[in-house]
Amino acid sequence: MHVWDQLEKPGHLVRLNPKGVGSILLKEQEDMIQKVVGYGHESIMEHVSFTFMIEQVSRALTHQLVRHRLCTFSQQSLRAVKPGNFIDLSEFFVDDAAQDMHGENVRELYELASDTYETLVNNGVPKERARWVLPIGTLTNIMMTCNLRELRHICRHRLCLRAQDEIREMTKHMVTLVRGSNDFIGRALGTKCELMEECTDVCPQGRNKKKADKGSAD
Q: Tens-digit pLDDT profile for the chain (218 aa)?
């Protein structure tokens, strides 16, 4: 998995007041932003935007990702592009025992899907129809642009231990890139637990840890 980002840094933050526009020092910017966001006025976060190029992830991941409808997406099209590989078996299974037991079956399924796709296309079936035989584990590339407010929302849910591991790892990459560009902005990103927000999920990560230890949901 590879994730790159292009951070559109906000210009020197300004304060609008009856006397005109005055520049604010960096420390004053941070203090003011924290205060305003603390009041619940998160709309100011929408002035900061990010573009991520996300490569070699499964279509299962992108099906989840595009549910964040406030983002803008451009995904590799299977109508025009030949499908690539499938998700690696080491990522498919959570342990070696499961891979030893089922790995060969999954590998054969992938090969059958790939061969069937090629046969259909070679026999004149349009790619837009032949792609129906491809599994959801087919790898794809997708570009995503979102503002800080929506990225914060994504992190609240996709960094949680209840999220699927593939999309959780992708989100961790995003946070690392943002923090590398601007640590102050990066500190605004985290799970509900990390941000000290109310969380009703039962998981081993947050305040409901005792409930999770007794038996958490998948």
A: 666 555 444 444 444 444 444 455 566 666 777 777 666 777 877 888 999 999 999 999 999 999 999 999 999 999 888 898 998 887 777 778 888 888 888 899 999 999 999 999 999 999 999 999 999 999 999 999 999 999 999 999 999 988 999 999 999 999 999 999 888 888 888 887 877 666 666 665 555 554 444 433 33
Structural tokens at position 42: 């998160």
For residue 185, CA distances in Å to 14, 48, 77, 171, 203 come to: 17, 9, 33, 15, 26
Positions marked active-site: 158
Q: Please state the domain extents for the chain.
A: 2-50+142-215, 89-133
